[in-house]
UniProtKB/TrEMBL annotation:
One of its GO terms (cellular component) is plasma membrane. Belongs to the TsuA/YedE (TC 9.B.102) family. Its main location: membrane. InterPro entries: Sulf_transp_TsuA/YedE (IPR007272). Keywords: Cell inner membrane, Cell membrane, Membrane, Transmembrane, Transmembrane helix, Transport. It is a multi-pass membrane protein. The lineage of its organism: Bacteria, Bacillati, Bacillota, Bacilli, Bacillales. This is Uncharacterized protein.
Amino acid sequence: MSETTSVQPIDEVKDPVQKKSTELNKPQMPLIIGGLTVGAILMIYLMFSQNIVQPLLLVIGLLLGYTLFHARFGFTSAFRRLMSVGNGQALRSHLLMLAVAVTLFAPILAIGYSFFGSGVSGYVSPVGVSLLIGAFMFGIGMQLGGGCASGTLYAVGGGRSVMFVTLLFFIIGSTVGAYHLPFWTEGLPAFEPVSLATSTGLGYGGAWILSIALFGLIAWITLVVERKKKPPKMAPKPSTTGWKRIFRGSWPLFAAAIVLAVLNALTLMVRGAPWGITSAFALWGSKVARFFGVDVASWGYWQGNAAALETSIFADSTTVLNLGVILGAFLASAAGGLFKFSKINGKNVTASVIGGLLMGYGARLAFGCNIGAYFGGIASFSLHGYIWGIMALAGTFIALYLRPLFGLSVPKPKDSFC
């Protein structure tokens, strides 16, 4: 693509210091040692201050972040490539990830118990105005902000400077969204949550068959679109062979898709709920607001969960997962010799501010982001996950016309991209 490094989103940019697409850089050993030290200190702290779940979730989060960065597994770029030039390669990796996820989630949800004997529940949320608007906003926001929720975290871990701006305003937007949420959920029309398994009478076996059929249909549609539009293929990323590829060099998207699905299922089994990201942003922002005297405990969003405002953020499982993702991405980038703070400019900072606000606010309205609503929702057999994906694609389409205003390019039929 013709973008400069300063405006490229993390899930689309080529490795900043590579000379050839097949070359690997030397591992940045001081950074690796520093990252492992920080991880060990955090692990020890969690082991002595929290229950066993939190250290386990830190490890899972670290593996999630390592996988995301290692494969440059993107949601933002996958949607953009499909909507701009009709390339569905990355979206098909999503479908593989979802197929593995529903296969693992089905028996876990049917049995109903985690590793530690507590109940498990998927993400099944209402379909209403808040979902439609929130997912649409998120779709626009992730295209302007340079990454989705998971993309923002692993971009921060990889040193993409402008993504720190996106993260900050993601947190602000999520906090404002939490404050406004009762207006969207109590005052506007919505249907009750719909589970393909429990609301339809299909059971988890029937819902699994239906889900696999839907994934196959969507994959077939993307292939039809590709045959018609003949879009450019995704360029190869630097990698190696043999066992070294586990630690260095880019993973194939299909491998990352499987690993992410397995790790999400492990998250469900460890904490009783799937992987999520943005609820922690609302918590962080609300704690800061409370420090400055705002009565956040009176917000409808915190009714029934006010205890989270009183305890340490390290008691919040989503916070621990997020920290693990950032640390895992940092280690992956250092192992590949790729960690480097990038330059920023006024245009991409402005895009990050707007994108972060839209994603944060939209995620609260839509009951989650690309991870909690799209990945976790569909894996949990929730209808709202599919609706989220459709509306985020619609937001992506609108964002294709907005990106050039901020110096962000849009893939063209003759472009090549990674």
